[in-house]
């Protein structure tokens, strides 16, 4: 069938956010995770149509609005990328907070407007600074984050043995210094991607990390390579490689959450103490522990993350039924 999708385009620290405004079919699942499965089963060709070439690229990222099933939510979203559907995305939440205020999806309240966004991982509360009618810096408070394992080891082809941690910040990440691979964060991006993907693939081939209360949130989303710092005196640099070798241009909001949960569990950070994290583009997000929580039987924390998002444009994408590449493709 012919298809026409309109979008607003944004970015957070250089990481794209393609917000679908019209043309996507209504999803009828009773819960947001049921809607995610419905999108995967019935409309995945629209994800590849928008994320893959020629309309997107391997590192494109997008947002689908759905009806919330939490009464307290102002809006609800699914996240899409090159390989499927994320459970959480902090860079997209940052953009959506500003977008929701600018588009009047929530009443504007000065100096700070609260936007309650239901993501597949749960309710994320964004706060948008409003100054003279303009949306400014955006923060969000995460769902419960926790450490899944520490000082685990793996022997990887071409890389040897590495030691890593796994933490949950709305999605599960393996985290370790790039030095474990004999690399630094100024190395060619292709080398960083190869190293991170080797660990992600290794973890996906074995028993998955399990979310203690919701099986649909289980599984390793990606690997975050760090400079080994903690972001207190100066920003700690990292790169997140997620989904199918997709590279986050931002510091990764859910990754900042996972890093803060790991640092808190190690006794390195205290509640309310700000730490900064920098991406390969030089973009910086700030994280701080909001409060201690329990995630099932696991001790955890919620994390406040702050960043900025910007508009890049708008678009109308059309599918012609006789186009042999109408559903998209990837060359690398």
Order of helices and strands: EEHHEEEHEEEEEEHEEEHEEEE
Share of helix among residues? Answer: 10-25%
Number of discrete helical segments: 5
- Beta-strand proportion: 35-45%
- The name of the CATH architecture of the largest domain is Roll
Distance between the termini: 28 Å
Q: Would you identify the CATH H-level superfamily of the largest domain?
A: Diaminopimelate Epimerase, Chain A, domain 1
Mean pLDDT comes to: 96
Gross geometry: globular
Q: How is the biggest beta sheet arranged?
A: 18 strands, mixed
**What is the number of domains?**
2
Report on the structure:
The chain is α+β, with helices and mostly antiparallel strands. It is 18% helix and 41% strand. The chain has two domains: 147 residues, Diaminopimelate Epimerase, Chain A, domain 1, CATH 3.10.310; 161 residues, Roll (Diaminopimelate Epimerase, Chain A, domain 1). It is built from five helices and 18 strands. It has an 18-stranded mixed beta sheet that branches. The longest helix has 16 residues.
Give the structure's gist in a few sentences:
By secondary structure, the protein is an alpha+beta fold. The chain has helices spanning 32-42, 44-51, 90-102, 189-204, 253-265; strands at 3-12, 15-22, 62-66, 75-80, 85-86, 112-119, 122-131, 134-141, 146-156, 160-168, 172-177, 220-226, 236-242, 246-247, 275-278, 284-295, 298-307, 310-319. A hairpin with a 4-residue loop joins β4 and β5.
